[in-house]
Design brief:
Blueprint (H helix, E strand, L loop, with lengths): L2 H15 L2 E2 H8 L3 H13 L3 E4 L2 E4 L9 H4 L4 H12 L7 E4 L9 H4 L5 E4 L2 H7 L6 E4 L3 E3 L4 E3 L1 H8 L3 E6 L3 E3 L3 E4 L2 H12 L1 E7 L11 E4 L6 E4 L4 H8 L4 E4 L4
Parallel strand pairs: 4-5, 4-9, 5-6, 9-12, 12-14, 14-15
Antiparallel strand pairs: 1-3, 2-3, 7-8, 10-11, 11-13
Length: about 250
């Protein structure tokens, strides 16, 4: 079996069983454990799985991810209002991080005339700001994840470790008042965690459809978030989140 076919088989077993072990793969594919470890490392670099001790698990659950081309047209008025409010936090001369996502993307239109530094992994944010002459635009490299049109992985993490930002504007697939913030992909979650660590303040931007919605990959607990901006939230959930030190802000209905 050639290397390409072997990697395809590994992904097939992973999708079927939910996890793979180096020892079992080496036996079934009749290759060395060193070869299997190399294959798993390469597949992780491509964002297709996450290495564990002795094996690997899927980077995301099958069917959990939706393309930004779909989500960008949902709750559009609410997302724009959320992004507009978030943009008022930004002052001239500051450095900010804009995460991938259909809500965070909208920030770009409100800051194009500000003399600031923007760091992002989002190709869509880059497109919005690439002609904004007052904005110093930095792109964090990495593996392209097409559902979000964002870059992630070890290259992105290393880039974010080298910078400091005044603000990180974070997107998410869902949040829980008790358990924190979630996204659909383990590698993306890992990248988001590095963004958070690189910023003085973190603002989570989520529309109301994300409320009490859990996904595969945990990004952080509430003690990593300073502000939550949304369009609607129940009083009970708001109280629980604010009790953990987060300032919750609700935009006017659009």
């Amino acid at each position: 079996m050639n290397p390409a076919a072997r990697k395809k088989e590994i992904l097939s077993v992973l999708a079927r069983d939910g996890s793979v072990q180096v020892v079992e793969l080496a036996r079934s594919l009749d290759v060395s454990k060193v070869t299997i470890r190399s294959d798993l490392d390469e597949l992780e670099t491509k964002g297709l799985l996450v290495r564990t001790h002795g094996g690997a698990v899927p980077a995301e659950t099958q069917g959990s991810s939706r393309f930004i081309s779909q989500t960008i047209n949902e709750y559009t008025n609410q997302k724009m209002a959320i992004a507009k409010l978030a943009s008022t936090f930004i002052k001239s001369g500051q450095s900010i991080i804009i995460d991938n996502g259909s809500t965070t993307l909208h920030i770009a239109q409100y800051i194009a005339d500000l003399p600031i530094t923007v760091t992002t992994s989002s190709l869509l944010v880059m497109q919005e700001l690439m002609h904004a002459e007052k904005v110093d635009l930095l792109m964090a490299g990495g593996i392209l994840r097409r559902p979000s049109m964002g870059l992630m992985g070890n290259f992105s993490k290393e880039f974010y470790r080298q910078i400091h930002a005044d603000w990180c504007f974070l997107g998410a697939a869902g949040y829980s008042s008790r358990h924190g913030v979630y996204c659909t992909n383990l590698i993306e979650a890992d990248t988001k965690q590095t963004m958070i660590q690189s910023a003085s303040k973190v603002c989570l931007l989520v529309d109301s459809s994300k409320m009490e919605h859990l996904s595969l990959a945990k990004v952080c607990d509430w003690n990593s978030i300073h502000y939550l901006i949304t369009d609607s939230i129940s009083e009970e959930i708001r109280t629980v989140i604010e009790s953990q030190g987060v300032k919750v802000m609700v935009v006017d209905e659009a």
